[in-house]
Write a structure and sequence with these properties.
By secondary structure, this protein is an alpha+beta fold. Helices cover 40% and strands 22% of the residues. The protein binds a DNA duplex through helix 3, helix 8, strand 9, strand 11 and strand 12.
Length: 351
DNA sequence: TCTGGGGTCCTAGGACCC
DNA sequence: TCTGGGGTCCTAGGACCC
């Protein structure tokens, strides 16, 4: 099953501000009278009636509906609600994998012996989550993760949707290519250029041709289009990288502004690293310029968990590689190659 | 429409080692 | 003097997801 919380951030806000329940509401970045540079994180279904969507520029949303309720993002609160909801789901699961703040896969291969009993479980889980947290969710039920995910999309909002393995091809056939998990804008464009329009077309496509164009990914894609997915519900997830990034209110060429941002971002990253009792080896600085081109610069260093190592490496990467003339829109700092070991404390000193 | 911030996975070339 | 095959690590970038 895939459990997906419905319009999660706004649903959380409705719990503590019941007065917004009957108003179009958007959680996202500050619209600043239409000048804001962020996007919509989530909106409720009343806002969706006006065409507002997650990921849409907040300025566009503001133009469509300036009198909607605009709320700032309160991650700490959503994380707390997420823990409560996921805690309920976990109680029912043989295996449990959280994939984002508002989504989790659960496997019930031992508890549930057939589709009927799986749907009964889904009802219980949905009711328990709603009773214990007050939050709505949708559950997709099927024979693998991919189909559970696709079923869940079809079941939204506030639903339970079963897709049996034998129904998969029929269920997927008419869907748009980018409805398929793993296919985004670019791949859709390439597939369309090859003459494929729907998931059903992809399912029947010439495998060799897909191989030539996309490599092994092409074969995976076609398996997905046929409802085949062998991936497991992974219980023990470890973070691979930790980063922070920030978009300036105005694009800048000022070195001092950029370096101040790098120190601030480094500080936030280090706090996360130390909280998780991790260390890092690789530092990456990301720059997005005003024309939206992006450049990454990374460097491996001696394993560390210290602010000075991060800030000095990030500063150096910026100083060496950032353009002096192009205006910078966004800067990011990320650490990866994470480990549990602490940084070395100069053990090889010659006495 | 004018575009955030958090991530993951994959590919590919070059340096280097044996 | 001109050269193979196996491997690891490092770096850069692209595509995708929520």
């Amino acid at each position: 099953m895939l459990i997906d919380m419905d319009y999660f951030f706004v649903a959380c806000e409705e719990l503590r501000r019941p007065e917004i329940k009957d108003k179009p509401t958007i959680v996202g970045f500050d619209p600043k009278q239409g000048e804001g540079r962020g996007v919509v994180m989530t909106c409720n279904y009343l806002a969706r009636k006006f065409g507002i969507r997650s990921g849409m520029p907040i300025s566009t949303a503001y133009r469509i509906k300036p009198d909607a309720v605009y709320l700032p993002i309160d991650y700490d609160y959503y994380e707390k609600m997420s823990r409560e909801a996921m805690g309920v789901a976990k109680r029912y699961a043989d295996r449990f994998e959280q994939v984002s703040i508002d989504e989790a896969y659960i496997e019930l291969s031992r508890k549930s012996i057939d589709y009927d009993s799986a749907v009964e479980y889904a009802k219980k889980i949905k009711e328990s989550i709603n009773k214990e947290t007050g939050l709505p969710c949708t559950i997709g039920v099927s024979s693998n993760k991919l189909l559970a995910k696709m079923a869940c999309e079809a079941g939204k909002p506030d639903g339970i949707k079963l897709v049996k393995e034998e129904e998969a091809k029929e269920f997927l056939k008419g869907k748009d290519l980018d409805d398929l998990y793993g296919i985004g804008r670019k791949t859709k464009e390439k597939l369309e250029a090859m003459g494929y329009k729907t998931v059903g077309d992809l399912a029947k496509a010439n495998t060799m041709e897909l191989m030539e164009k996309f490599g092994s990914y092409g074969v995976e894609m076609q398996k997905s289009a046929n409802g085949i997915d062998e991936s497991k519900v992974e219980e023990n997830y470890e973070v691979k990288s930790i980063g922070r990034e920030k978009t300036f209110e105005r694009d800048t060429t000022e070195r001092t502004v950029a370096l101040a941002a790098i120190r601030e971002l480094s500080n936030e990253v280090i706090k996360e690293v130390q909280k998780a009792e991790l260390s890092f080896k690789v530092v990456t600085v990301k720059m997005r310029y005003a024309d939206f081109t992006e450049h990454l610069k990374s460097r491996s260093i001696r394993r560390s968990d210290q602010y000075d190592d991060l800030a000095s490496t990030a500063t150096d990467l910026y100083s060496k590689y950032a353009s002096r003339v192009k205006r910078i829109r966004k800067i990011g700092v990320r650490v990866s190659d994470l480990g549990k070991e602490k940084g070395q404390k100069k053990i090889n000193s010659f006495v």
